[in-house]
Structure formats: structure tokens, C-alpha cells
Design brief:
The protein is about 40% helix and about 20% strand. By secondary structure, the protein is an alpha/beta fold. Strands 1-2-4-3-7-10-8-9 form an eight-stranded mixed sheet, sandwiched between helices. It has a two-stranded antiparallel ribbon with strand order 5-6. Strand 8, helix 5 (about 225-235) and strand 9 form a beta-alpha-beta unit. It binds zinc ion.
Amino acid sequence: MRNFFVRRIIGIVILIVLIGTSIYIFNYLENKKKIDLLDQLEVNKIYFQSHEIIGYSVENRKIEVYTFGQGEKNLLFVGGIHGGYEWNSVLLAYKFIDYLRIHPSLVPENIKLTIIPSANPDGLYQITGREGFFKTEDVKESQTFGLGRFNANDVDLNRNFDCKWQPRSTWKSNPVSAGTSAFSEPESLAIKNYVLENNPIAVIFWHSQSNAVYASECENGILPKTLEIMNVYSKASGYKAVDSFDAYEVTGDAEGWLASINIPAITVELKTHETIEWDKNLKGVNALLDYYR
Ligand SMILES: [Zn+2]
């Protein structure tokens, strides 16, 4: 009989302790949530962030730009101009967007860091079946090399810019359509308009899979600043620096057009079509931020 009462009392005490602990943990988490939210508001006041649509693809998918900071120097990064099979360049861009949301203080006061994560959303859609953010799991396995490289008009967007533009261009040994005129495609036009309106100090394009950093040029050779930032990114990231892309003749590339209007531009080619090589690229981006600081 006594044992029964003792056990009952112990049971009740354990129950009270459990309920008390639960209430305490619940209150703690709720308070933490409130504090986190306040911190976030505080951070947003100091570290400006925005997100806007700069155009639409042939199939009416959004082309977006994410902005971090309000400095006078706009440093622009572009992923995914070759869409589908270069999906990792888009994933890398989204990873930077996530990272900068959590670490906004990475962007120095004099810089406005902008990212266009997906410059060819129709091409990307062929591989991910998604618009906007996606995960590696969304990527459909494809045996077709180069799937989703072109936009929905079958144009290679990185041949549709106004530097030595010709209607037919090349990709490796293949002829590709470069559109009906320079900037005939809404995707390249969106980038052109954004660049002309925002006058970036430099533009970095992420591609895959040549495992190198390339300079750019049009009619008048490589801009000295282009060589400098190519070397800055290369040294920090470990990707080898290559002055001139001469594997095959390229016309109408975006970087060349930027060179023609005196904006330094480099191409960072990831090593594979599947990896984002985060540590290397974080070092590269940090080195550029330091360079322009
Ligand atoms: Zn590419």
C-alpha cells in the first residue's frame, strides 16, 4: 500500500517536471524566434537586400536579379546562360544568394553585389522541371550531352551578344544559331538592359566545365582590368587563368560585348557539370570583393 503511494507520488513529480521542462523549452524557443526576427530586421536595415525581375524568357519564365548592399560599385555575377546541362552554375549562384542572406556583412560598404542566378531559365527547365530555385535532387539524369544549352528558340544565348555577331556561330565543332540579330532573344536583351542601366564595374559569368578562369575581348584586345580580375579570381580560387579562349572561334559572346563597352568581364568555368566547388568560388568572390573594396 505504501509502495503504491510512493510510486504514485514519484509518477506525479516526474509528470510535473516533464510538463515544466516542456513549457520552459517552448517559451525559450518562442523568445529566441522573436529575437532572431528582430536581429533580422536590424540586419536588413543596415545591409540592404532586394530581389527584382529584369525580364522574361521566350517561354515567359522570370529572369531575376538579387542585390546585396548599396555601394556605388556594382559587381555583377551571372549563372546559367547555358541553362540545362550547366545547371551547376545556377546552383552555385543560388548558394551565393543563400549565403549572402545569412552573411550580408561580407559585402563591403562601397559595393553593390548583384546576382542573376539563371540567365536561361527555359534551358534550365528542361533539366530541372522547375522555375527558380531547385535542388540537386530535381536534376533529371540525362544522356543527352548539352541538353538545355539553348533557349526555347534554339539560340545559343552566349552567341547572341553584339561582339562580332554572326547568325551562325560554333560550339566545339557544332554550328549553333546565334539568333536573327544581336540581342534578338529576350534573355540576352534583359542582361543588356540591366547592364546599360546599372553600369557594373565588372561582370563574372559562371559556366561549366573547363576548369579555368578566362579573360574576355572583342575588337580591341583584353582590357587591363579584365586581366587583373582574372588573376585575382584565379589566384584565390585555384582555377587556372587563361587569357584567350582559342579552342574554337566564338562570336557574339556576352563577355566580348562587355569588353567592347569597356566593362571588364571574366568567365569562371567549373570543373564538372555536377559540382559547385563552393570553397574555391567563395575564395574567388571574396578576393574580388577585397580587390574592389
Ligand atoms: Zn557554358
